[in-house]
Amino acid sequence: MAAEQSNVEDTRHPFLLSVQEVEARYKTSIDSGLPEDKVKALQEKYGTNELQIAGAIPWYTILFKQLFNAMILVLIFAMALSFAVGDWVEGGVLVAVIALNVSIGFWQEYGAEKKMDALRALSSPSANVLRDGKYTVIPNADVVPGDIVALKMGDTVPADLRIFEAMNLTCDESSLTGEAMPIEKTTANDIMSDKNAGTLATSVAEVQPADRTNMAYATTIVQKGRGRGIVVAIGMKTEVGKIAATTGKKTRKPGRSMNYKKYGKSQPIKGAARRIIDFLGKFLGLTEGTPLQRKLAVLSYILFACALGLAVVVFAVNKFSVPPEVAIYAISCGIAIIPESLVAVLTITMVVATKVMREAHVVVRDLSALEALGGVTNICSDKTGTLTQGAMIVKKAWLPFSKIYTVRDSMDPSNPTAGTVTCPEQADPEGEAAARDYDQERSALAIKFDVPEEKPNQSQPEPAEPAEPEAQMTPELRMFLLSAALCNLATVRYDESHEGWKTTGEPTEIALQVFTHRFQLGKKSLEELGWQQVAEFPFDSSIKRMSVVYNAPENNEAGISTENSVVFTKGAVERVLDLCSHVGTGEAQQSMTEDLKNTVLDQMTDFASQGQRVLAIAYRPYEGRYKTNPKADPEKREGDESGRAALESNLVLLGLAGIYDPPRRETTPAIHECAQAGIKVHMLTGDHPETAKAIAREVGIIPSDLGALGAEFANSMVMKATDFDRLTDAEIDGLADLPLVVARCAPETKTRMIEALRRRGAFMAMTGDGVNDAPSLSRADVGIAMGSGSDVAKSAAKIVLTDDKFNSIVAAIREGRRMFDNIQKFVLHLLCSNVGEVILLIAGLAFRDGSGYSVFPISPLEILWINMLTSSFPAFGLGREKASAEVMRKPPQDKKRGVFSNQILVDMVVYGTLMGTCTLMTFVIVVYGRYDGELGHDCNNSYSDSCIPVFRARAAVFAELTWLILISAFEFKSIRRSMFQLDPESESTFPLFKDLYENKFLFYSVVIGALSVFPTVHIPVLNHNVFKHTAITWEWSVVVGMTILFVAGVEAWKFTKRALHLFDEVRVVPGKWSQGEEGSRIKFGKSMSFTSMKSIKSWRSRGRSSTVQPQV
After folding, report:
1. Which of 87, 382, 907, 995 is catalytic?
2. Is the pTM higher than 0.70?
3. Residue 382: active-site member
4. Which of 292, 817, 975, 1042 has a C-alpha 20 to 30 A away from that of 1085?
């Protein structure tokens, strides 16, 4: 914005000011609003109320990015050199190669951006504002500071508001602050400081946004009630706007400043030099992008340097006399060392992967994220809506003295017909079948313990505990449900048109209303039976309870007298419990005592430790009929405060309701699969620490028994954001391990966690759906947003989950790892052929014809044909290989080495040398074994009788090299296992054909490629004029023999690696405890663990380093 939205005299945040002070600052009136004639000037001053978040990337930016890819730059240089020496055919072929690579990358990334347009959410389209004393609905973008905005249930807050009127007003701020529970709004400026307990806040730094209860924030939702507020910030000045700005903000690296006054006279030169280096690094792809992209950029320039070196070698051999023939030979060496199809193969492999991901509800916005997924070591996840459903459900209900009702097999917070409610039958203490504690029957005075006869005769092991029966209606339960249903503003109904259940209201009340509907005692049905509301005392955050007064109908099933009204109350347990004089109903009712209070509080603690928010439900018969107007506005407070206090006294406690935000069913096994794959899951949430800890236990992020892992580790597993933020970077780095759960997170806390992980060498993914997740989504190596999340979050992320499920993240990582493994395979396939070609051409410098020029053992167009067509399609096939069974049981890839591991580099040299040696031997056998070394004259340019030996030898080399490259694709289906036994679990004695045919694309690519050699070699004119070879006969036997020799050599090297354990792959070594293991074992009947537990030390090591020790 062009202007700051505060005045010079008083820069305090509006939440610290009184309503009158805010009115004066923004020159508005809470009674009449802004004058219309001032609105235009304010719009010119502050701009429109819109978030400046990144939209679709322009097409020309995408094209520029593809055109200046590192490999493409090398190909462009080779193309220019070809045209410069007049080799139009090779130059034209390189133009086609460049166009193909750029087109594939451009259309895929452009298509991904188009798909994202459909996912970008829109802000609230309109706002109800007061101007010139009249309310009018205007576009959201036209709201200006000083506007008076009226809010009602269901509205999206259009801008940041200072609330001055609140009638039962609560807002869902989970998308902004991460707080799962709706926030009750107040109007006073008596906000207490978070840092100095018991004192009023005096600065912004003392209070987190979630605790500024007299503020309503842009993009949040009004859950219930109504209210009004003064607009104090719009657009990018709102809290959500600040987060959006942080997401897109670019920070300059240290040392790039050119300020000589601050850093000295030499700083401008140093700063400029570093900026130039940064620009060149970015332009050349050496400093930006994923590890694979940077590695390929380095590879491109290494190969480019090698090509120049080879050209120098060619020139030196020819004593730096460079006629066109020598230049063409040098270009051939350069073309031979560059894998022209690598960019196209890599891009198409990623395109196929994105289609697979889309079927798994994962939309990839940036192709680079796919490769990055394979290296993820840590996932930092939001809780609400990601690990959990983001909805409330009553899980347990406790009725005094005897029973706990449990909702089972229901994860749908809106559907009262899903699942069942069970309750254990109360034991009969007088019955003979009652359980007895036989050990208590032993005589303490006897020398010999007498064990009752029944005990030894009991069968061992004890029979399984019978399933709890479904709950039956009782008078106690009916009263509990009656109070929960009527003291409630939510609605639950079945929508016939949509064939589903629809709810409105605050999530906690919806959960209670759904629970009452399970017993056909919903509020609507009760009111249809004659229950009549006569008063309402709305929920008040200061007393944390709500009450209603009802008149009962005649002959009601609860047996309540119609002569008296009934008060129903619900609220925080501690607040309601202090008002209760009795506990229970009917004959079991007892007077409240300290022991009973402790019993209730113990039960509350038990529910809370299970991640539940606990509410107390109570009632009391009112003496006589409550006198009030039954048609009064239910949002108006009935009676004065003293009347309410009298009404809510001498209550009878009916029970407790435990309400929780249920984890997604698939979350726990997904977390355990991450643990098996060497990936740690961290939960960063805005929830209360106890709730966060309980949910983390339930989904398996932390163990049920923290003490089992040692005091030091247990203490650091769960931290409050205030404690984490208080630590310096050095203190955070000194922790034994970073916390797995951080509660009460602010956006800055999440980004600090990301940076702390990065300092430990981690490669992290951040998942989330709220606005508050956007900064960490953009800063993480892989940002993963939810499809139902905010526009800001999706714009900051590289990947969007359309189904919002955590297990889709695991599917994405599995696909990323599969793709990474396959990239290694086809990179090896392409580069080892380049090594073989270079060896062949360098050795070919020794073959001199009658003119003294070196003779090509293989022509430039033969090289391009092999590199672009013969090897490309098998490489595509290798990219489609299915994931191995061990793909999620290996640690993440080493991001420092990336694709080019030691094994890949050594294999490339071994197989390339073997390939070059075989083809060179073939050329020598044909020319020197049959034709006595006759190399002819000018055989690099045209065909003549003197060139027959060279042309026949070239044809044999071309055919052989083609077959070797095709056969190597089969060999590289597994980098370690024999081609003849790819599946270790196969029971077949000779599974070769079955294993090779499994990947049909690869199989037919190899078969068709092998057959294509015959027409290429034998078609007249084409063979002489284009490929510079001729038809062959007996040479085919040499080709076949050398192919068999190559296969034997590859198999021998693989056997050597296995026998000597060279480059053995490491596996994840589980520690004493693995994330998700307990929940997977309990919920799914068996553990998903793949090996015995070793030590917690190895598990901890994954937090400090990406290296995982191999199993012994």
Report:
1. 382
2. no
3. yes
4. 817
